[in-house]
């Protein structure tokens, strides 16, 4: 009897991984909210997110954008990576295969602006949380969010060209360029000059007491 071929749908596997992450994030958001004795309505008022949106996030029904997660982290006074604790593997080395990073940023109308989490290491003896991202900007990306949070960040440009703002300064980033900065200052892409643009962003957060 001939052996039966085993087929594996990589797209299905990725969907399962993403769903697991969404559920883990939702549980963490709900746990943090309850720990602080905050109602969904109160969290809605503090973040500007609708009650319906927060309910979907807490139940793991949607994949919140990086901007939404940062807003929640600020309102709950926790580092962004706190939301991934229930999903995190207990190890100090994270190997992420090409194409297997976890997409966090999704536009409702296009795939022009993507954040892919390549792995993260939670608080260790140094008291630092580290997150590496692969960020991809393609034609149509023109509504750029502004970020502001604790820690430091390093950007290494892989391809394309962008204007990146940090406070009042604008930096032209081309392949091979590096930008290292304090994230307490408002920052983010300003303009897409040559697309597609791809860069690695490594963010380090201090652990809050």
Automatic annotation (TrEMBL):
Pfam families xref list: Cupin_2, HTH_3
GO cellular component: cytosol
An annotated Gene Ontology molecular function: DNA-binding transcription factor activity
Ranges of residues in domain HTH cro/C1-type: 29-83
Keywords tagged on the record: DNA-binding, Plasmid
PANTHER family referenced in this protein's UniProt entry, alphabetically: BLL2473 PROTEIN, HTH-TYPE TRANSCRIPTIONAL REGULATOR
Identification of the protein by name: Cupin domain-containing protein
Organism in which the protein naturally occurs: Pseudorhodobacter turbinis
Taxonomic path: Bacteria, Pseudomonadati, Pseudomonadota, Alphaproteobacteria, Rhodobacterales
């Amino acid at each position: 009897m001939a052996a039966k071929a085993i087929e594996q749908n990589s797209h299905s596997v990725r969907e399962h991984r993403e769903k697991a992450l969404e559920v883990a994030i939702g549980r963490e958001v709900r746990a943090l909210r309850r720990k602080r004795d905050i109602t969904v309505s109160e969290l809605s008022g503090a973040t500007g997110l609708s009650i319906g949106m927060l309910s979907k996030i807490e139940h793991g029904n949607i994949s919140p954008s990086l901007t939404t997660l940062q807003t929640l982290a600020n309102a709950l006074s926790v580092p962004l990576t706190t939301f991934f604790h229930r999903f995190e593997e207990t190890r100090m080395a994270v190997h992420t295969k090409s194409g297997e990073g976890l997409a966090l940023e999704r536009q409702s109308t296009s795939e022009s602006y993507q954040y892919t989490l390549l792995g993260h290491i939670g608080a260790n003896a140094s008291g630092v949380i580290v997150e590496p991202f692969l960020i991809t900007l393609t034609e149509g990306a023109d509504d750029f969010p502004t970020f502001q949070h604790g820690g430091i960040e390093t950007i290494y440009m892989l391809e394309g060209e962008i204007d990146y703002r940090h406070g009042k300064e604008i930096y032209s980033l081309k392949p091979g360029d590096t930008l290292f900065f304090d994230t307490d200052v408002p920052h983010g892409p300003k303009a897409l000059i040559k697309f597609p643009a791809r860069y690695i962003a490594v963010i380090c957060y201090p652990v809050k007491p």
